[in-house]
Amino acid sequence: MDAVTLSWVSTAYLLSTAVLLVPFGKLGDIYGRKRVFQIGITVFTAASFFISLSTGPVMIIAFRAVQGMGSAMIFGTSLAMLTSVYPPGIRGKALGISIGAVYLGLSLGPFIGGYLAGVLGWRSIFYVNIPLGIAVILVTVLKLPGEWKEQRRETFDLFGSVLYGTALVLGMYGLSILPTYPGFAFILTGIVIAGIFARYELRIENPVLNISLFTKNRVFAFSNLAALINYSATYAVTFLLSLYLQITRGFSPMTAGTVLVIQPVVQAVLAPLAGRLSDRIEPGIVASAGMAVTTIGLVPFIFLRETTGMYSIAASLVLLGVGFGLFSSPNTNAIMSSVEKRYLGIASGMVGTMRLLGQMFSMGVAMTIFAVLIGRVAISVENLPEFMHSLRVAFTIFSFLCCAGVFASLVRGRLRPTENG
């Protein structure tokens, strides 16, 4: 595949997941979260099987989109099921364990995937999903009794879902092709359609996304904003540092990956502890502290040089891991605990949507800086001064963005006792 086609292997999955997270969360609220979760695991596993049999790029990309659909069903319901089962006193602990498991997967994935691809070929990355998916299906059927649905009499808002998905696709695709003029045009069109969507949702009886969750629920609104800012300020860091370690320092991809895995490992260890802490202390306070530590971890990268010591880089990565570990579980706890049970699927979907939007925005910022300061050329030692300047500009923007996120996190207010229930 050429570079553009290859990028769609990732983009098709991300777009499909982002568009469907909230609609499938809503379907879970209406028809049963466990049912949607089980269907999602089945779809994800089946898509992995067909990807492993792919005969060309079109087949891979198409089934990656189907895989994203399954992922949306999984992540649009999993947090909602956990929140349904665990009461406020231990909910943060449960969510922290779940989020820690995600970070553990992020830590192990590149190593296991790299090993499988190197030894058995790229198809093996998808083969391994099949027995794992079957195992999860069996566990949910045999060991997960009961069902959780809170909106049995509601109808599904199909037109609103189409408007919502169209706005997200246009916005996310625009972010992925910045800083081109079509990219800005797609983003602007997406914002306009998002406005139409919001107005439509306010006028119907059973909206796919209850806009009052944002206009009348301060904790929910600002917790989601804090998540969006946090991912926007941090997601591209690994990408930028990977380029720095390989191009500037001459490290191999494996060595660079070994250095960068420090951050998700720290996150995986700390997330369950932070979740438990948010059961005892106001979640917003813990999350705000985490955002502040993340900012402290980002600032040293503004002064990154060709000779910056590896211990200094590692220390900053540890701080980023601590900051994000402190932020993610409590912030998720705040989001999920701030809504009534009948909106848990929507809240679960919004957690994932903020993550994906932030990730796309973060990469869009990085790509725009590269295009403006380096140009549309390959990054190499020949343009090292421009590359280093681009890094410092990017980390300056991300640091200021994360600092603003601290204030967005602090102004969310406190969870009221009724909201915790």
Q: Could you explain how this protein is built, in words?
A:
By secondary structure, the chain is mainly alpha-helical. It folds into two domains: 3-156 and 208-420, Growth Hormone, Chain: A (Up-down Bundle); 157-207. Helix content is 80%, strand content 0%. It is built from 18 helices and no strands. α4 crosses α16. The protein is globular, with a radius of gyration of 21 Å. The N and C termini lie far apart (51 Å). Residues 416-421 have low confidence and may be disordered.
Structural features:
18 helices, Growth Hormone, Chain: A, single chain, 421 residues, mainly alpha, 2 domains
List the helices and strands and how they pair.
Blueprint: H1 3-31, H2 33-52, H3 57-75, H4 78-85, H5 88-120, H6 123-127, H7 129-143, H8 158-176, H9 181-203, H10 212-215, H11 218-248, H12 253-260, H13 262-280, H14 283-298, H15 310-337, H16 344-373, H17 384-410, H18 417-420
Helix pairs in contact: 1-2, 1-3, 1-8, 1-16, 2-3, 2-7, 4-5, 4-16, 5-13, 5-15, 8-9, 11-12, 11-14, 11-15, 11-16, 11-17, 13-14, 13-15, 14-15, 14-17, 16-17
